[in-house]
Amino acid sequence: MPRSPILLPALTCMLLAGPAAAQEADPNRERLEQSPRHHEFVRIDTEAGRSVRALVVYPEVDRPVPAVVVIHENRGLTDFERGVADELAESGYVAIAPDLLSQTGPNDGDTDSFASGDAAREGIYQLPPEQVTADLDAVVAYGRSLEATTDKVAVAGFCWGGGQAFRHATDKPEVAATFVFYGTAPEKEAMKEIGSPVYGFYGGDDFRITGQVPEVKQAMEAAGKVYEPVVYEGAGHGFVRAGAMPDADEANRRAREQAWERWKELLGKL
């Protein structure tokens, strides 16, 4: 089926992600260190013969629950995505955050093997779209196979990952829902293959991405697909990450809170 290329994300996303060496400054680190939930790294085999490293975080619940796949930004799997996964588990979902740079770094390493965030970003742009799709297919299947989960698996992504979540929706119609955080859309022709509702989260001051929303909405409606975008006034690109920073401006902080509230409400309907 038609697949759009892996598009370059905004420079702001690159800057917000920061180099790997600066992870100590990430506010998610405190959350991760204090979390009472069970975190574990697993290896997920794909049909293409790859082995994808992924973080799985389990909620403290007494029943099977839906799973949510969290696709990282353009510098690989960092404390930001790990923190998002922990917050999802805190809300009652099994969260799975795959490292799509698995086995692509120096000596077949993962994100952590790259010398810097910039090097990881360069590696992201070398990923074949078909490989990303196959990796995500395997992660979704893994999420559905766990005894701790129901048959509902949602896919979410941020920045570069948001674009990949939207693109993957054209290939995986059995996904329960797709959540796009300030990511690009697939080609219009590919939208006809989307089987899940798509929920968008966009910054009002991120015109490079948000300026496309009206056209995307029109194309999705023409294809007969569910697409519900929300634009958060005054927020910039990457507001979920930026809004958690101690020095976050009010617009990003407010957008992050409102986006999380909406996301949890939508997940509650799965």
UniProtKB/TrEMBL annotation:
Start and end residues of each Dienelactone hydrolase domain: 53-269
First and last residue of the signal peptide: 1-22
E.C. code: 3.1.1.45
Record SUPFAM superfamilies: alpha/beta-Hydrolases (SSF53474)
GO molecular function terms noted in the UniProt entry: carboxymethylenebutenolidase activity
InterPro entries per the UniProt record, alphabetical: AB_hydrolase_fold (IPR029058), Dienelactn_hydro (IPR002925), Dienelactone_hydrolase-like (IPR051049)
Annotated Pfam families: DLH
Sorted UniProt keywords: Hydrolase, Signal
PANTHER family: ALPHA_BETA-HYDROLASES SUPERFAMILY PROTEIN (PTHR46623:SF6), CARBOXYMETHYLENEBUTENOLIDASE-RELATED (PTHR46623)
Protein name as annotated: Carboxymethylenebutenolidase
Organism: Tautonia plasticadhaerens
Lineage: Bacteria, Pseudomonadati, Planctomycetota, Planctomycetia, Isosphaerales
